[in-house]
Specification:
Blueprint: E1 5-9, E2 12-16, E3 24-29, H1 53-67, E4 87-90, H2 95-105, E5 111-114, E6 121-125, E7 129-135, E8 138-144, H3 146-150, H4 153-165, E9 173-176, H5 189-199, H6 215-225, E10 233-235, E11 260-266
Parallel strand pairs: 4-5, 9-10
Antiparallel strand pairs: 1-2, 2-3, 3-11, 5-8, 6-11, 7-8, 7-9
Helix pairs in contact: 4-6
């Protein structure tokens, strides 16, 4: 059975499923093992947070090397994330299609469905919820901040992955990466009310006074609605805001930080 474990490769710490489900090599990165300095220290993979472009490039190569995909760096798809619900699909590794998807991704997208081999996909995070989906015919990665979560982007991505591959929802494996935990995520009552209307009262744990959001619960609920079996959902439990020694946290670091990532690729030709 799949499980997430911590693993150090090429100096980079990954949280990964070492079984490579359905031939998908996947991981969530931690913040150590890179070349960035100061508030971006050290494996910052985000290109839009103020870090030096060369440092980000070198860090991405390190992350890809740890994933065993450095040779496919020219195929990397890493969209400009805009807290929306646009999903792009990579059908093949043909250079023209990869180039077209990469160009479209610069205009904004928050999830990528990939059916091709040798095309790595990376999305970046600092409190928002990373979701990696593995299926027999491909994989997907979604970025689920509070806006994406209330829009059910994880469920929409799961449904599109199933539509594109012809696989069954119950075959999907879902990996929910490091994100801000409910104890660290106090939000206004108006937002609590919206989430309770959408996902039920458990999304705002009563033991925390009902004023904190559990984004992980909302994402799991959305995935289940899309047909992903609860026993096929695996989650990193540590809160990014509590564990800034391991992860970046926009909230805990007052907006001055780098980004860790969710990465996946199907290796081979």
């Amino acid at each position: 059975m799949a499980a997430l474990v911590q693993q150090r490769k090429s100096g980079v710490t990954l949280i990964t499923d070492t079984t490579c489900p359905y031939g998908v090599t996947l991981a969530f990165t931690e913040r150590g093992g890179g070349v960035s300095c100061g508030e971006f220290s050290s494996l910052n993979l985000g290109s839009a947070c103020g870090d030096a472009a060369d440092a980000v490039r070198r860090n991405r190569l390190r992350a890809l090397e740890a994933l065993g995909a450095k040779q496919y760096a020219d195929n990397l798809v890493c969209p400009h994330q805009v807290h929306g619900e646009k999903i792009l699909v990579v059908h093949s590794a043909h250079k023209d299609e990869v180039a077209a998807v990469r160009t479209e991704a610069t205009q904004g997208a928050d999830a990528i469905v990939c059916l091709a081999k040798t095309v790595p996909v990376m999305l970046c995070f600092a409190d928002c919820v990373p979701v990696i989906l593995a299926a027999p015919g491909g994989f997907a990665i979604a970025h689920s901040g509070w806006r994406g979560t209330i829009a059910h982007i994880a469920a929409k991505t799961a449904r599109l992955l199933v539509e594109q591959t012809g696989d069954r929802p119950e075959e999907l494996l879902a990996y929910v990466g490091p994100h801000i935990g409910a104890p660290d995520y106090e939000v206004p009552q108006e937002l609590i009310d919206r989430f309770v209307d959408e996902f039920g009262s458990e999304v705002a744990p009563s033991d925390l006074g009902g004023c904190h959001l559990d984004l992980g619960y909302a994402v799991r609920t959305a995935l289940a609605e899309a047909g992903v079996l609860p026993e096929h959902i695996f989650e990193v439990s540590e809160s990014t805001a509590t564990h800034t020694d391991r992860f970046f946290s926009y909230r805990a670091e007052h907006g001055h930080c780098g980004r860790h990532a969710a990465l996946a690729v199907r290796l081979g030709n």
